[in-house]
Design a protein that fits this description.
The structure is a homodimer of 95-residue chains. The first copy, chain A, is an alpha+beta fold and 95 residues long. Chain A has a single domain, classed as Arc Repressor Mutant, subunit A. Chain A has helices at 2-18, 22-31, 38-44, 50-62, 82-92; strands spanning 36-37, 66-71, 74-79. Chain A has a three-stranded antiparallel beta sheet. In chain A, strand 2 and strand 3 (74-79) form a beta hairpin. In chain A, helix 2 (22-31) packs across helix 4. Chain A is globular. Chain A starts with a helix and ends with a helix. The model of chain A has no long low-confidence stretch (mean pLDDT 96). At the A-B interface, helix 1, helix 2 and helix 5 of A face helix 1, helix 2 and helix 5 of B. Chain B binds a DNA duplex (30 and 30 nucleotides) through residues 17, 20-21, 23, 37-39, 42, 48-55, 57-58, 70, 72-75.
DNA sequence: CTTATATATTCCAAAAATGGCATATTATAT
DNA sequence: ATATAATATGCCATTTTTGGAATATATAAG
């Protein structure tokens, strides 16, 4: 159906929108090598506020780019799309 | 230098931002199979205004995603990054 | 039950994106 | 010089995003 195509495009647009912000990209970079808890990401990106990083992760999650997993007090995030990592690395080597 | 990293991230964010809009994505889809002039894109996407499509192409161009080539009255646009097509196709098969 | 730690949420003003409409530019042909 | 076709640009009201500061929630430990 034509509507499927439109739904797909909108979903893709949402993915790209989630990636269109430098802070969210930095957060994503942190996850390229594997799962991290929020606190570890906060340590790596200390220049940003905790709330900012939390919001960034949630936006990435809503777009389906990362998934999360709760363990005690911590929440662990990791990439959930193979495509994304490849693309980021491809961009990286071409910019 | 650390600044290089930041410049790179900002450039990537710009690329993602350019792709974060459904109309611009539809325009990009038109170009996946090769070069087209603006008038051909307008025909394919007749539901959108000419000005809207023109602006979309320019935004994609500013992000470095497409390049253009003038020939008489026409302007031909085409993809300028290999990564992008691969990523779009990968997304497409996973959504 | 109180405290501490990790993470998420709310509120909000400033900044940026969106898209419609009108208009401008550029190139070609007559 | 004029007309026409293809494309780009400017203006602008509306919507959306951004990020800071404060606050809330959840889990664990004492």
């Amino acid at each position: 159906m034509e509507n499927d195509r439109i739904r797909k495009i909108n979903k893709e647009a949402k993915i790209f929108k989630a990636l269109s912000n430098p802070v969210r990209l930095e957060v994503l970079y942190c996850l390229l090598d594997g799962e991290l808890c929020v606190c570890e990401i906060i340590q790596k990106l200390e220049k940003y506020e905790q709330a900012h990083i939390s919001k960034s992760l949630i936006k990435l999650k809503e777009a389906g780019i990362v998934k999360d997993r709760k363990e005690g007090l911590n929440v662990y995030y990791s990439l959930s799309m193979e495509c994304i990592k490849n693309f980021i690395l491809c961009l990286d080597s071409n910019l």
